[in-house]
Amino acid sequence: MIRGLLCIALGLLAGLAAVALTQLEWRHAAALLAALAAAVGLLCFGSGKHTSYALVAILAAGIPVHVSATFLPYPQARDQYVPHMVTSAGIALSVPLLAAVGLAVVQFLTAPPFRILSGIRLEPIASTGFGLFFAAGTLSLVNSADWQLSAFELIRIASLFLLSLLISNLDRGAIRVYVGSLVTAVFLQGALAVAQYVSSSTFGIEALWNSEPTMDEFSALFRGVGTAAGPNGLAYFLEIFLPMILALLLVERRPAQFMFYFAALVFGLAGDLATLSRASWIALPLPFAVIIVAFGRKRIRSIKAAAIGVVVMIAALITVVAAGPIVVQRFTGDDGGSAATRPTLNRAAWTMIEQFPIFGVGINNFADSFTRYDRDGGSRIFHGGNAIVHNVYLLVWGETGIIGLFAFLWYFGSAFCLGYLVLTRSEDVADRAIVLGAVVGIVAGMTHAVVDISGITPETAAQIGLLAALRQLTARPVPEPRRDRQGMAQSQVRLA
Fold first, then answer.
1. CA torsion 281→283→284→285, rounded to 10°?
2. 15, part of any domain
3. How confident is the model at residue 86 (pLDDT cuts 50, 70, 90)?
4. Burial of 81 by CB count in 10 Å (0-12 exposed, 13-18 middle, 19+ buried)?
5. Which end of the chain has the lower number of beta carbons within 10 A, N or C?
6. Is 85 domain-assigned?
7. Is 282 in contact with 330 (CB distance < 8 Å)?
8. Residue 71: phi, psi to the nearest 5?
9. Does residue 454 fall inside a structural domain?
10. Which residues, 6+ apart, have CB-to-CB distance to 205 below 8 Å?
11. What is the pLDDT of residue 107?
12. Dihedral sign (CA 398, 400, 401, 402)
């Protein structure tokens, strides 16, 4: 009966999707149809396990792919110089979200009747962060000038929770597929960004993915973007996942796997340089230093390892020398006052926070409210008379109040708690590398957020989900063989 109801529901959804497809641009409609065709093929011709692994790979590789289709698009908001540049202006379907929904469907179809949710485990630390922020966003509706914008953002947060929840329930095999797909995505995105930067060409990305590299109008440099939503979006993706790849590289002993991680690290760093993102360049050194101190000293125990380290250092030095002029230009050259506007916008945002300190002006309503409540005048420094603060912590405080800021910090703090629990329980060196890399990668994202507008994103939701998955796997009872008085082998349960 349950599966019959599911078929009816899928039929209704297919009808709605058919109507929605007629309203989409051709590239969005083609991408959505391709995704649906692939999902149907996997469900019809693949086993449950193989289908799940394929969807996990698509989920990981799709994180940096900006090919989202927006349903129920909302008209341009009032008092905003760029329409909805921060969060939600409709209900967006992205590649990771579609893959996550596919995983949920597979779970539904392969579970025994009336035990659909028996295989889903809710990790309390990770789930609390999402729950608190969702609650804070709901409370902020008391001051929201546009509740529809708030509703769109709450739907986005809920979809990211689904993404994180499904990742947190991956088994060991799926985690290997997931991490391998992430490493591959970093390699491909970095290589594409470098090619875009060197050739000053979009390679048609803007036609296929509604995303394109941008020319910096002040330095006249072409910025690589891969398939992300923008140069800073790609930089955010790379800075969060590169520390994990470095950690895996330092603990890897298999030559082929070592070269795989090494290639991804090199092209990922080159791609990060190609984005010309100053915030990312500032955010990466500390996480890299932590990883090198934690794992590098254990790696150099032989002449061969030392020789590899010397080669890597020489390659890094050559890269620094080659990229040095560009880096210096980005930090000291004319940027049109972009960096200088940050303090001005921060002061203006603070005047709005002072008026709505508890609940904020409403989640996803900052840009719509900035010019109305700004007492400092800083919100009118850009052409068009409006701007938005480029500091996520002030943005969250302004939209959801001190309650939302606490929940937001709890969301990121959950990564530290989960990482600590796994590090104190697991002896597996790969687990420890993944965990520490994920945690310091989130630190890089939090550093970037001081001067940019990246907050609760697919990247951070995915990393917290991965930490939760390892936390649940290391907390499970593990059978350990023992012998009884007659020397017969038995099984004893101990906590990992």
1. 90
2. no
3. very low
4. middle
5. N
6. no
7. no
8. -100, 150
9. yes
10. 192, 196, 211, 212, 213, 225, 226, 227
11. 75
12. negative
| N-terminal to C-terminal alpha carbon distance within the chain | 40
* Nearest to 272, CA basis, from 245, 252, 311: 245
Q: To 10 degrees, what angle do helices 26-45 and 95-110 make?
A: 20
The total of other beta-carbon atoms located within 10 Å of residue 172's CB is 12
Least confident among 12-16, 180-184, 449-453: 12-16
Separation CA 415–CA 410 (nearest Å): 9
Residue 490 is inside which H or E element, if any?
A: strand 489-495
Let me know if residue 356 belongs to a domain.
Answer: no
**Structure tokens belonging to residue 315:** 């390659």
How is residue 81 written in tokens?
């110089």
Q: Which residue, among 152, 163, 164, 162, has the nearest Cα to 70 in the 3D structure?
A: 152
Q: What per-residue confidence (pLDDT) applies to 488? A: 44
- Which of 355, 226, 335, 318 lies closest to 279, judged by CA? 335
The residue among 128, 44, 133, 114 whose CA lies nearest residue 408 is 133
Question: What domain range is 412 assigned to?
Answer: 122-338+380-477
pLDDT > 70 in the chain, percent: 68
CB of 140 within 8 A of CB of 400? yes
386, 81 Cβ separation under 8 angstroms: yes
Residue whose token pair is 């491909």? 188
Residues 6 or more apart whose Cβ sits within 8 Å of residue 22: none
The 10s digit of each residue's pLDDT in 336-392 is 667 778 888 899 999 999 999 999 999 988 887 888 888 887 777 766 555 688 899
Residue 109: closest CA among 59, 163, 39, 58: 39
Question: What is the distance between the alpha carbons of residues 70 and 73, in angstroms, rounded to a whole number?
Answer: 6
- CA dihedral defined by 199, 202, 203, 209, rounded to 10 degrees? 160
- Number of residues that this document lists for the chain: 496
> Which pair of structure tokens corresponds to residue 31?
């991408």
Residue 404 has phi, psi (to 5 degrees) of -70, -35
CA-to-CA distance for 172 and 169, rounded, in angstroms? 10
80 burial class (0-12, 13-18, 19+ CB within 10 angstroms)?
buried
DSSP per residue, 135-172: HHHHHGGGG-S-HHHHHHHHHHHHHHHHHHHHHHT--H
**What are the φ and ψ backbone dihedral angles of 477, each rounded to 5 degrees?**
-65, 135
